[in-house]
Amino acid sequence: MNTLEDRLRAALSARAEVVTQPMLTRSLPVTDPDAAPVLLLPPHQQHRSRRLVAVALAVAAVLLVAFGAVALHRATTDKTVGPAHVRPRSAIPWGQVGTGWMLQIAEPGAVDVPGGTPGWLYLIDPDGVLYRICKVPQNDVYRYPELAAWGAPFNTDHVILTSIIGNARTSLLEINLRSGALHAVTVLGHWSTAEFVDATDASILLNGVSKMVTVSADTGQVETTFEGSEFYSTLISADRTQVITGSMTTFSVLDVATGRVVRTLDLPNGYNHCFANSWLPGGTQFVARCERGGPSTATATFVFSFDGVKPPVRPAVPAGWDEVDLAGGKIAFKTDQPNFYPINGMSFARLSPTGQLEPTVVPAAFEDARWSLVFVTPAGLILENPSPDGNGIDEVVSWNPLTGQVKELFRRAGNGGPDGMWVGWRTTSP
Amino acid sequence: MTSTVTSPAQLAALYNAHRLGLVRLAVLLVDDLASAEDVVQDAFIAFSGNSHRLADPDAALGYLRACVVNGARSMIRRRQVARKYQHLSLQPDEAAADAAAMLADEHRTVLRALHRLPDRQREVLVLRYWSDLSEAQIAEALGISRGAVKSNASRGMRRLGELLGVSR
Predict the structure, then answer these.
(1) Which of A248, A400, B105, B157 is least crowded, fewest Cβ atoms below 10 Å from its Cβ?
(2) pTM attached to this predicted model
């Protein structure tokens, strides 16, 4: 029986080949290596009047400004009162915001709706109370907003959303969670992650995997371009002056002000493609995950010293197992899925200091086919449970297989909570 | 740094080598061949104007792929707006209908389910299971994090399984 992946591959290949079949039978110009490329402009682009285009652009700009002003007014006006478990942002107890709190955006629906109603950004406390922050503009620009940066070590009241827009640009939307105020800047390039460089909020570090820069939070202008062409993850030093990033063969420590490489850190023998995950307390060691070379694609977790001392030798987990550090020890897990982790079918085991595996029990509640492992924190594995109708996420929990403890982080209320799919969520780090 | 993809001959070579593959990628993101060809044409035109900025010539295909994904997304947006305000029913694309008829029932069923997914999930699945890109490459092409690639792939496959009645 073919797997769903096989069925999908076969269907995609069939459609791609069938639909493009006419291209193969068309008469094509003979390829002359010295000739200009065959780039045929569509007629409407060749003959379009510049004046007409200019007028259209001017009208569009006026409309954009008008709609933007209305949207901004609506987004920053906190006047909607929801059900009991949904409170206005004025009720946020800021002194308590910290570990266990989450941010989420609700999408209008699992299937895109043209001109759909805007989604809301919520701050959620550990008891599941939702604080309504603001409406995220759901125009073409913010159709796919991503929560890029929030939480430790500062800026618990500011968040950055990113959204890819046309012409190789990214929009960064900074939201003040206290006031609901929005500030958007456009930067050139497509970027995977964004975070404030330091507590002044003046600069934002952007990582696009093949490039990394800092930009002005006010204007979006590039301030620093970093050396290199591979940037797997970013981890800013405790004093916020240096940043660690991984590559296929090494870790680099770069100066935030100049973008230059300060030093490199060796990877453990037999491992490559390392990602810096988080600092350990004290800020002199960090946790990183590296892929094992060769046929196995398993990854292992290592502790690196920021000063360049070689990482301690760790016992290798058996082939095919993944290894993570949790509070109380190490856990290994195994799955046959390459890209995502449904709990049903996964194996978990306690990993002894000598590399021995001791299987642990998966709570029966997680055997439901919908539960998936989506994130790892030192406190536990973060699992999510989507709605049976595929229209959102019902529940998010933190599970520590070492202690068996399960902590509920979020449960969608059945009595009027935000509808639709939660498209993004972040939790503060312990 | 100077790119080596700026000469017309090299651009032509790139065009001839990758045009069909990129059109096939675009076909899976938009509805029909003509639109897909337009998207790829626009991608090459944008590339020809910006290739001098490309620091790494080996990144040309990745750049073009990202242009195609973005172009397909823009085209779908334009169509959604047009359909919203268009009172007349759109004439079905005969070529697309013919092509659909040539597909096996099984493939049509899977593709129908795929088109019921949100755009982002569909893009991730197409890049993963047709283009065979790695998570990092998909993240770069779509301009999202690897975590977002994982979660969209997970949700997309889960939803696809549900739509097809396959338990996972």
Answers:
(1) B105
(2) 0.50
